[in-house]
Amino acid sequence: AGHLSLIVRAGAGYNTIDVAGASARGIYVSNCPGKNAIAVAELAFALILALDRRVPDNVAELRAGRWNKKEFSNAQGLYGRTLGLLGVGSIGQETIRRAAGFGMEVIHHTRHDTGVTGWTRDLDALLARSDVVSLHVPLTDETRLLIDARRLALMKPTAVLVNTARGLVV
Q: Does 100 have pLDDT greater than 90?
């Protein structure tokens, strides 16, 4: 990389960068946590809506030449449903704002009570109660594989999981 002296990662994570290797070569590594919070919260809601309205299935059917209005008009909707958030940093807080616009109840889990309404210490209870679970935690030793088979089994059969965090959280 020639005279590379700095690597800046857009967003919060830097798990895809060999920080030790960069440091050994005198290259600084930085990130921009919180700068894409609105974009990620909007993406999370796009995914939530797509799952609720079965948009991918509908598009596949349309591309195959089939129009099934009755089937794809039958959605539960988000109003009155419970959104469980893991993490209420800048992305989680932006997600809470969007959930309010959809009339969703929000509960959230973090390591410590942040003072944001809806906090629960009991992650397993959050998973069991939520209709939608959205992950907004960094990848750390504590969050690696946080959502495993046992925890997935706690969720309602109709619940959905949206992971805009890191893949290794699940």
A: yes
Q: Which residues pair with 86 in a beta bridge?
A: 109, 135
* Model confidence at 65: pLDDT above 80: yes
The alpha carbon of 10 is separated from its chain's Cα centroid by a whole number of angstroms, namely: 17
What are the two backbone dihedrals, phi and then psi, of residue 54, each rounded to the nearest 5 degrees? 55, 45
pLDDT digits (tens, 9 = 90+) for 132-166: 999 999 889 999 999 999 999 999 999 999 999 99
HEC secondary structure over the chain? CCCCCEEEECCCCCCCCCHHHHHHCCCEEEECCCCCHHHHHHHHHHHHHHHHCCHHHHHHHHHCCCCCHHHHCCCCCCCCCEEEEECCCHHHHHHHHHHHHCCCEEEEECCCCCCCCCECCCHHHHHHHCCEEEECCCCCCCCCCCCCHHHHHHCCCCCEEEECCCHHHC
Q: Measured between alpha carbons, how far is residue 34 from residues 10, 49, 89, 109, 131 in Å?
A: 10, 23, 8, 19, 26
- CA distance linking residue 84 with residue 163, whole number of Å: 12
